[in-house]
């Protein structure tokens, strides 16, 4: 095993319980009298390595296991088989609206999430930083998040997630929501973070974004890695899928 | 399970539980007209009904108001915390899917948020009960270990319910149906001597009865609760906690794929 690899996956398999009959209630369990859950394999024998400072893109159709893979990397999902080695700290997974409490205001969300992420920086500084990066006004940030537009939610979520310094940043299809100005700004920021030596794992449906950010990439289909290579090769493969 | 309990000692995790508990307290009263006073209205309304209908029926109870109120505040602690916490894992899907923190923190923080409410209610209760003949003594401090025991019991219940609710969403509805039954087989409005003979066992089978009897004994009775009663409560709380924690740990790896 390579010593400078930050993330190593060795034959990782993840199974989920699956509802056989769409059972979601005890009533169904009693009336339908079948075994309610079966195991479904979501990730099959996944092996890969990511080196420090390297950025990897993950491409694939909907339902090919990309998000599950990201969550497994971040330690949210425990694999049934295989070995995972991770050396480094994670920024929280950046997905659309992830973890924002809709009833709370922008400011309340900031301090809640900062405490949950375990930010070491002083909270007031961090909040100022988030506010500046998100370009949301005071007035907006005092409103409950449920009244934000989806672009504003993305801005806030993105800004809060980036307030943390971590070795690994995981981005799950988030840039598609913000307006062009903010997208460009996020890409800039991601480049800047990358230049500092942070490892980035990037899931997207837009090959362009992957090519801009990532060095290498993998293509997933039905829970397996079908292709791996440079970002350019994989993006070409991905476009051929459709 | 022991691992996740150990993690709580970590300072960062204490901050996290605190932040979640604070969120729960804020969320509960957000957009409400009278804020945390809602916590008093419900027991107060029940108390008024009890006084009007039952007080004269049970002359055997000395100081009915104190008797009923002390039962009610414990019951509402239990009722509120289970109602709030039962959907907490499903409701926190966004956080659970993006952040690596032990899922157990979510029910725990619901409990802490409700404990905060409970102690507010308790302070008001202790002041108001001055006019209804409560005796202030150092014995009242026993309410703290009593509340801790009841919390451990309640934690067991909410770990069980909230994790099952992930897979069977009607647990929520079933619990709402079961609760009134539990309320009426707990001697809150009536003295326990009401159920006699062959029906007396119903009360004894109800775990909540022991905690309410303990709490009430601290406020109301001329003699402090017996060591027997304390032991019962310790045993019941421990068993319930381990049942809840066991089920929770069996299921927790499947939470993410189901919520």
Give an overview of the whole structure.
The complex is a heterodimer of chains A (about 240) and B (about 260). By secondary structure, chain A is an alpha/beta fold. In chain A, about 35% of the residues lie in helices and about 25% in strands. In chain A, the strands form 2 sheets. A 5-stranded mixed beta sheet of chain A has the order 5-6-3-7-8, with helices on both faces. A 3-stranded antiparallel beta sheet of chain A has the order 2-1-4. By secondary structure, chain B is mainly α. In chain B, about 70% of the residues lie in helices and about 0% in strands. Chain B has 13 helices and no strands. In chain B, helix 4 runs parallel beside helix 8. Chain B starts with a helix and ends with a helix. The chains are: A alpha/beta (about 240), B mainly alpha (about 260). Chains A and B meet through helix 1 and helix 3 of A and helix 2, helix 6 and helix 13 of B.
Short overview:
The complex is a heterodimer of chains A (242) and B (259). With 242 residues, chain A is an alpha/beta fold.
Strand content of chain A: 25-35%
The 3D shape of chain B can be described as globular
The count of domains of chain B is 1
CATH class of the largest domain in chain A: Alpha Beta
- Poorly predicted runs of chain B are none
- Which fold name is given in CATH as the topology of the largest domain in chain A? Rossmann fold
Number of helices of chain B: 13
With helices defined by DSSP (H or I, 4 residues minimum), what is the helix count of chain A?
9
* CATH H-level superfamily title of the largest domain in chain A: P-loop containing nucleotide triphosphate hydrolases
Order of helices and strands of chain A: EHEEHEHHHHEHEHEEH
């Amino acid at each position: 095993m390579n010593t400078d690899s930050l993330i190593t996956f060795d034959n990782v398999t993840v199974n989920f319980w699956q509802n056989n009959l769409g059972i979601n209630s005890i009533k169904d369990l009693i009336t339908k009298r079948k075994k309610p859950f079966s195991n479904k394999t979501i990730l099959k024998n996944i092996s890969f390595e990511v080196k420090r400072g390297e950025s990897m893109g993950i491409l694939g159709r909907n339902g090919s296991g990309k998000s599950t893979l990201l969550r497994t990397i971040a330690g949210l999902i425990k694999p049934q088989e295989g070995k995972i080695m991770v050396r480094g700290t994670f920024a929280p997974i950046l997905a659309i609206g992830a973890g924002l409490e809709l009833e709370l205001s922008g400011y309340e969300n900031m301090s809640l999430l900062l405490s949950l992420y375990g930010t070491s920086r002083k909270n007031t500084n961090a909040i100022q930083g988030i506010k500046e990066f998100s370009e949301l006004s005071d007035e907006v940030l005092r409103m409950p998040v449920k009244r934000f537009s989806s672009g504003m939610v993305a801005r806030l979520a993105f800004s809060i997630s980036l307030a943390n310094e971590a070795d690994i940043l995981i981005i799950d299809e988030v840039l598609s929501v913000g307006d062009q100005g903010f997208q460009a700004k996020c890409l800039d920021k991601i480049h800047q973070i990358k230049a500092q030596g942070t490892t980035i794992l990037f899931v997207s449906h837009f090959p362009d974004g992957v090519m801009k950010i990532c060095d290498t990439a993998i293509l997933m289909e039905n829970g397996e890695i079908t292709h791996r290579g440079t970002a350019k090769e994989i993006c070409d493969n991905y476009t051929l899928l459709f | 399970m022991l691992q996740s309990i150990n993690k709580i000692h970590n300072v960062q995790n204490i901050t996290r539980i605190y932040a979640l508990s604070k969120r729960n307290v804020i969320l509960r009263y957000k957009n409400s007209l009278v804020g945390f006073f809602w916590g008093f209205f419900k027991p107060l309304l029940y108390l008024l009904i009890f006084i009007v209908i039952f007080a004269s029926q049970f002359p055997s109870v000395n100081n009915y108001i104190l008797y009923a109120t002390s039962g009610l505040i414990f019951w509402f602690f239990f009722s509120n915390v289970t109602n709030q916490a039962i959907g907490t894992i499903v409701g926190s899907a966004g956080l659970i899917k993006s952040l690596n923190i032990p899922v157990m923190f979510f029910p725990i923080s619901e409990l802490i948020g409700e404990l905060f409410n409970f102690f507010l209610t308790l302070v008001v209760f202790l002041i108001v009960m001055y006019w209804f003949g409560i005796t202030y003594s150092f014995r009242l401090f026993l309410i703290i270990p009593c509340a801790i025991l009841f919390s451990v019991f309640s934690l067991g219940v909410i770990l069980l319910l909230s994790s099952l609710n992930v897979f069977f969403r009607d647990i929520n509805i079933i619990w709402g149906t079961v609760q009134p039954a539990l309320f009426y087989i707990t001697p809150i409005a009536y003295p326990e001597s009401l159920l006699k003979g062959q029906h007396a066992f119903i009360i004894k089978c109800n775990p909540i009865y022991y905690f309410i009897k303990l709490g009430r004994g601290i406020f109301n009775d001329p003699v402090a609760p017996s060591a027997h009663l304390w032991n019962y409560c310790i045993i019941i709380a421990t068993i319930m906690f381990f049942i809840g924690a066991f089920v929770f740990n069996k299921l927790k790896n499947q939470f993410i794929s189901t919520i």
